[in-house]
Amino acid sequence: MNALLQLACFQMLIYAGMWAAGWVIVGEERRSVLHWLGFNLLVAAGMGLTLLRPTGDPWLTVALANVLIAGAFLLLVRGGALFLRRPTRDLELGLIALAGLAFVLWTGPAPRGPGWIHPGGAATAVIAWSLLSMCWRDRAALAEQFGPRTAAVALAPMALYGGLQAWRTVQIFTRDASFVHIQSQSTANELLVYASLLAAAVFNLVFMFLIVLRLMGRLTYLVEHDGLTGLLNRRAIQSLLEREWARWRRLGEPFTVVALDLDHFKQINDRWGHPAGDEVLRSASSLLRREVRSIDAVGRVGGEEFLVLMPGCAPESAVGVAERLRRSLRGQPVAIDGGREVAVTASLGVAAVDAGDPDLEHLMRRADAALYQAKHEGRDRVVRAQAPRPG
């Protein structure tokens, strides 16, 4: 058994090294990574103390070892909550830690006679509660953020190992204390260590994979979105336009585009400064997202130029939406530093895909032409693009 325990201890140290390297790399996830680093280090330390039995001081090799291992799983729970942006429930975790510590101090590290309860009972109970409660509370957040299949893969081994520890806790409190001696040579203890090795491997590797997935998602977001406004950038909105154009050519599903340009934006920058201009852009972007449908896409395609893609929207409906956007922008001045307000208006051009459009560029030129016509006619208005001429 000592050889297996040494292997488990070495494995946890390897994972600790992995998380230490991750702490240097992952940036925003450092708080959760630090908890998982602590989890692996505390488990390794607890197992290391366990290997000193039976010659070492029992307060160290039994009592402290169990305290360290139980504390490790409380860190695991808190790190998972931080990673999934959930409440950490510090009061609950603190009370469980105090109860476990009091139990260990009450039982002591050495047998006191028949019916003696091993301090490992507290550790196994904390492990079982930690894993099972983590599975119950985190399942919805994991499924929402990474998908139900990924959540199942991440949580199934933890649920099985938590169930095993719950069964072991019951056995500790209902059978002779010798049952919990992990160094006793038995098939049950060997299976427990192997299960611990498997659960640790799955947890550490799966959550490292989830961190990579999250980082990739953020990278994809940065590639596709404008850094100032959070809207889709030109490349991303162009990709959606090409997809809608292909659907139109293949299935005949219509779509409409609205080209929008903020009026006199250069004057805002010149008079109030670029920070005020940035605030106007952020405010306008937020309004556009609120006012369009959930299936519509909004992109920033230039300095103060925006584009709204409206799948399945008839031209008349799109004109009505464009009018609502124009009125909303006009009716919501933007507050800037010093309590001052900047009035914002916009010119909009609306163009619906038509059989006379030979390609997507032709449709976009019609929307731009309608936008320029709105500006030429005095700004702060909506103009619907003319239908393309046959042939």
**SSE-based structural type:** alpha+beta
Euclidean distance between termini CA atoms: 85 Å
Largest sheet, in brief, is: 5 strands, mixed
Number of strands: 7
CATH architecture of the largest domain: Up-down Bundle
CA radius of gyration: 31 Å
Q: Count of DSSP helices?
A: 12
Shape: elongated
Fold and architecture overview:
The structure is a single chain. Helix 5 runs antiparallel to helix 6 (148-174). The protein contains twelve helices and seven strands. It has 391 residues and is of the alpha+beta class. It is elongated and about 95 Å long. Strands 2-3-1-6-7 form a five-stranded mixed sheet, with helices on both faces. A two-stranded antiparallel ribbon has the order 4-5. The chain has helices at residues 2-25, 30-50, 58-83, 90-107, 120-146, 148-174, 187-224, 234-251, 265-272, 274-291, 315-330, 360-376; strands spanning 255-262, 297-300, 305-311, 334-335, 341-342, 346-352, 382-384. It has two domains: 2-224, Up-down Bundle (Rhopdopsin 7-helix transmembrane proteins); 234-384, Alpha-Beta Plaits (2-Layer Sandwich).
Layout of secondary structure:
Elements: H1 2-25, H2 30-50, H3 58-83, H4 90-107, H5 120-146, H6 148-174, H7 187-224, H8 234-251, E1 255-262, H9 265-272, H10 274-291, E2 297-300, E3 305-311, H11 315-330, E4 334-335, E5 341-342, E6 346-352, H12 360-376, E7 382-384
Parallel strand pairs: 6-7
Antiparallel strand pairs: 1-3, 1-6, 2-3, 4-5
